[in-house]
Amino acid sequence: MKILITTDLYKPLINGVVTSVMNIKKGLEARGHEVRVLTLAQGTRSYIQGDVYYIGSFNTGWVYPGTRFRLTIPHAIYEEIIDWKPDIVHSQCEFSTYGCAKKIAKACKSPLVHTYHTVYEDYTHYFCPSKKLGTMLVADFSRHVLKSADAVIAPSCKVGRLLERYGVSAPVSIIPSGIDLVRYSHNPSRRWIGAKQSALGLGDEELRLIFVGRLAKEKNVDELLELFERCRDLPVKMVIVGDGPVREKLEMHAKMLGITDKVIFTGMVNPAEVGEYYHIGDVFVNASTSETQGLTYVEAMAAGLPMLCKRDECLEGIVKDGVNGWQYGDDSDFRDHIITLLDNPELRKNMSVNASREAQRFSTAVFVLNVEKLYMETIEKSRIAA
User: Fold this and answer.
1) Rounded to the nearest 10 degrees, how much is the dihedral formed by the CA atoms of 203, 205, 207, 213?
2) Cα Rg, the chain, nearest whole Å
3) Which among 327, 322, 215 has a CA at the least distance from the CA of 265?
4) CA distance to 45, 68, 283, 364, per residue, from 25 (Å)
5) Within 10 A of 120 (CB to CB), how many other CB atoms are there?
6) pLDDT of residue 128
7) Neighbours of 20 (CB within 10 A)
8) CA torsion through residues 146, 149, 155, 161, sign
9) Of 179, 182, 186, which is closest to residue 367 (Cα–Cα)?
10) Which of 12, 10, 14 is CA-nearest to residue 213?
11) N or C: which end of the chain has fewer CB within 10 A?
12) How many Cα atoms within 13 Å fall on the side-chain side of residue 371?
């Protein structure tokens, strides 16, 4: 098949959408498909680099950090894609490149598949002062945009139910995004781990909690700090890996709580080393309820970390209480689970093994096979309808 993937977000940016696009491109090519990408340039000039078309764009970080809006797609690039004639167009974002995806799919009479990556109603604070109004706008927008799609992919049951509530008419398939398990399950050398732990002031005598992700309001890291403060009398430390717009506020919050001696902020780390950083910790913690699927959860499981995460629909079938970790519901739950892990090293070891095993269901290979199957089914339906 000839497959065109359109996305507002692409490397060198680092987030869940980019990871998903990179994995699916690599996986589809490994299965013999021809894949090209249409994305936004990080400047106003449009250009072609290998099998990637970059459309000139301008920065709109005032809407949401890192976002850009495209300029007009050059006629030469548009014509080249039309002449190539993709069998299917797979859109990954609802904004700038979605219009390109619709236009190209229509011109080539190819089906349009769309992956709905983001729960926008958890981001209304970026564009609307009213949560209720923001949610209504998101529902109307999503319903309007997705009516053009022949098929929609939801990365989790949580997103599938959300789209049903929005009244989306296109057929929705639940296909969890896959990750490169080898990148996260590979154990770095003891020397590397020892050096990092020493640099961060970590020892083997304490339980090391670790959070990996962007430090933004919707990630709810401030709640993790407050929960951790209630565990300050226990032999535990917490490592917060990542950077973002609220990092300074979080550092001030930790200072106010009196836990700066037990909480370490690494700041931005080398993207190539993110997989290794999971192996510094003993338990993965997260308090976000804004995830569509939460790839960092799967990454942490692949690294063999038990989970201790806030209860959320996106964790359905991922975090299994008492098996590979727990979903906590209130403050006492969090502390009680920490104590249980401290008192039961054998349980922690079993949960680590179970976490690694559960992660296998989210491999890139499984993800690509499921997407490929949906492509073929959608193309067949399109042919019959024609």
Assistant:
1) 10
2) 22
3) 215
4) 24, 22, 31, 10
5) 21
6) 67
7) 26
8) positive
9) 179
10) 14
11) C
12) 36
Q: What is the pLDDT of residue 294?
A: 78
Q: Please give the structure tokens belonging to residue 80.
A: 């080249």
CA distance 242 to 378: 39
Residue in this structure with the two tokens 């709580």, named with its chain if needed: 257
Which tokens hold the place of 123?
């981001």
Q: What are the 10-residue block averages of pLDDT along the chain, 386 residues in total?
A: 96 83 94 97 94 92 69 93 98 94 97 91 66 84 94 94 94 92 89 91 93 93 97 97 95 98 95 92 94 87 97 90 94 92 97 96 93 97 85
Surface-to-core class of residue 76, CB atoms within 10 Å of its CB (0-12 exposed, 13-18 middle, 19+ buried): exposed
Nearest to 283 by CA among 200, 205, 210: 210
- HEC sequence for 173-216: EECCCCECHHHHHCCCCHHHHHHHHHHHCCCCCCEEEEEECCCC
Give the other-Cβ count within 10 Å of 376's Cβ.
Answer: 13
- Which backbone phi and psi does 286 adopt, to 5 degrees? -160, 140
CA distance readout (Å), 19 to 15, 71, 96: 6, 24, 19
Alpha-carbon distance of 260 to 237, in angstroms, equals 10
- B/e letters for 171-209, b = 16+ CB within 10 Å, e = fewer, are ebbebbbbbbbeebbeebeeeebeebbeebebeeeebbb
Tell me the two tokens of residue 149.
């799609």
Structure tokens at 120: 């926008």
Q: Which two tokens stand for residue 277?
A: 């950083």
Distance between CA atoms of residues 136 and 148, nearest Å: 20
Q: In what order do the strands lie in the sheet with 172-174?
A: 47-49, 52-55, 34-40, 2-7, 88-91, 112-115, 151-154, 172-174
Q: Which two tokens stand for residue 278?
A: 């999971």
